[in-house]
Structure formats: structure tokens, C-alpha cells
Amino acid sequence: SDCKLYVYSKNRHGKQRVKSDATQHIHASNEKILILEDDRDAHVGRMNRIAPLLENYEGRSEDDAIKDEPVYDKVYLIRYRSPSAKKQVLTRNEFDAPTQKLSSLHVVKLTVIYPRDTNAKHGNINGDGASRAKHTTNVFTFDKDNGYGNWHHPKSDFFKIEEVDLDTIQNGVYVILDKFYIKTKDGEQHPSNINSLVASYKAITEKDAPTIYAFKVKQEDIPKKKKGWTEFNTWFQTEMTDFLDKNSMSQEFVDCNAAKKHLSGETLDFHYLLRKKAKNDNSSGYGNNNFTKSDPILIEKALEKIALDDSPIKTYFKAVESMVPSKEKENKMNRFRKHLKDSGFGGFQSCKEAKITPSHNLDTLYQKVLDTYKMLMYYEDDFLSGWRRQGRGSNSSWKNLTNYINLVDATYVRTPNIFEEVDKIDF
Q: Residue 335 and residue 333: Cα distance in Å, rounded?
């Protein structure tokens, strides 16, 4: 967070202009690269200094200030938050590569590098020099490569102007801007929030988000009146929940949330003991939080000493294990939780989760365990006892526990139940 790093490059296989991308690394390679430090207060004028270093444009060889500069493959730009941050970053990373000041570079007008089409009719030329179509309009679009955070100003830097024929766009995605804040039904969002959501969408679906069009408040009726257009936050929520459904993850998501909620409550620590017996390295210790799925074979081996297949505690353990996610799935679901919440969606609970029932009612199964194995609460106090013995002697503890369970199960299936008979005795 003490510095920002950007890489400028050009698509050598097309006609795209030089563009910048946020990055975290400067890669040593055989490419021609230049490293710059942004020592200017304003962002305006960066491209006028950097594009000439990456473009072999007409007239470059006649410009005395730049003709001897090579045409670089990449230019890296580092922007430090403060002089002290610069010193700390350089020291921590042992960074000693030659670095040039951005302010020292020669300024070239972009119209020289990217000349306009002089054959186009006056007033019908866009910023790239290409002829503007008859029905196109200047509109804002969100710059998905902006690389800025919520500290960045001005907020207009998160957007760029494009020539678009809105009538040709189907299923458009849009936001409404109020002084370049994103207007939502609950208030407003900083435009940097879209960076997080767009990155999350790509990480989860492995697809790029569509173009996000932006209209000022006085223009908000334009997209609202267009058939098939969707406000960005609504689009994001729909895409995320549909992705769960299409990938058969909805039931897993509901089960995962139900299991996490159950295990984070007042449940006994034999969950921990079982998972240590099954050699699950993701066991978190006291409190049973953040469980993820153990190796199914190891769990079966841990449970095989419980003789009765429909033993209440065996049934309960299998139900828990079927509902907790794998480590990979848990990481993905955590991204869902975080970004659905960040979008103001309030989590999956507020949508389809309310319509899906967990695979097992763990609270009911657990209560049956407590009602059946009445000595378990004393067993936990004596053999697990919080931090004193956890992780020690798990084999002998598990053996003692299964012996007790088998004894109760053998009695429990008898008719009448011996415990029920004892409850009738007046001591």
C-alpha cells in the first residue's frame, strides 16, 4: 500500500494504443524495459511522456529530444505515497535498478503519435482520430485497467470517454454517476469498489466483466429506458447467484454456511478429536471454527470402530462431514461471501439461500447425540479439557470414546431403552 506499480505496453499484434495495467512485479527479462518514478503531482501528461517511448511513430526519428531513445517493450512506473515510504520500500525490497524521473521525459502531443484522419468531415472525428459514425454518442465507460484505489483523486480517472452507438448495444450494463460516485439504492459507492467486484467476477467465473457504461444523474433515464440494460450491482448479484446454480454449488453453499454456523456454536470438542484422528491438518483447535473437509477415506477409518451403522453419533459425524466444504471450495465461497457483501448485496442469504434447505439439520442430530450419550459432556471436560490436552493422545482418547459409544449403542437399541427405564426411577 506504500507504492503503486504500473506497466505500460502495446499490443504488437494490433492497432491498440499504449495502455497501462496495475502490476506487483518488475520482471527481469531480455525485453527492453525502462523504469520510471512518478515524481509529478498530476496524472495529466503521463501518456504524453510514456507513449513516445513505446511507439515508433512517424516523425520520431526527426525529433532530436527522443530520436536516440530506443523503442521500449515495456515501461514500468512506480508511484510512492511519500518520501519515507519510498525509502522503506527500496530498503525492504533491496531495489537498486536504474530509475528515471517521469518529469525528465520529453513531452510529445498525442495527436503527433496518433494522428487524426484528415479526410474525415470536420466535427465528426473522435479522440483516436477515427471517423465518428453518424449515430454515435460520447459516453463514459469504466476503465477496468485503471489500477487505482479508494485513495485516488480525481474520481473521474476511473472512467474514460468512448464513442458508442447505444442503439446497437444489447444487454448493456451501466452505473449512474453523481459527481463520479456510483449511485446505488442505498446511497453511493466510491468507483474503486467496481475494481474489486470486477476482479472478483473474473477470479470466480474466469471471464472478463462486460463493458460498464456510466451516465450522469441527469442522464439516468437513458439506460433505464433501454430494453435489456441492467444496473451494474444488480447484474453482479445475478451473475454470482446464477454461477452458483450453473455449477451446482447452491446446495454446497447453503450446507457450508449451515455447518459453519453450527460448528461455531456451543458444540463439544470431539469434532476436533475426530479430525485429528483423521489427520486433517485444517483442524483449528478449540472452538471448531473454519473446518474444511477431511479425506473421506480417513474419516471412514476413524468412524469404522463405531460398530452400529445408524449410531446417532456416527450419523451426526457423517452429516457434518458431508456439509463442510473442501479447502478449495471454502476459499471460493469466502470470495463469494466477501464480494457479495461488498456489493451491498448482504450475502447469499438474502437471495436463493432462503429457498434451499440444508442437507441435514445438524442442530437436531447433535441434540440427539447429547440425549443419547449423556456422559459426553463429562468426557470432554476430563479428556479434552480445553487447551490442556488438545492434540495429545488422540488415538487413546478416540479409542475410549468409541468404546463408550459402542456400549451405549448396544444398550440404546434394546427395547425398552435402559436409559428411559432409569429415568423412571425415583432416587
A: 5
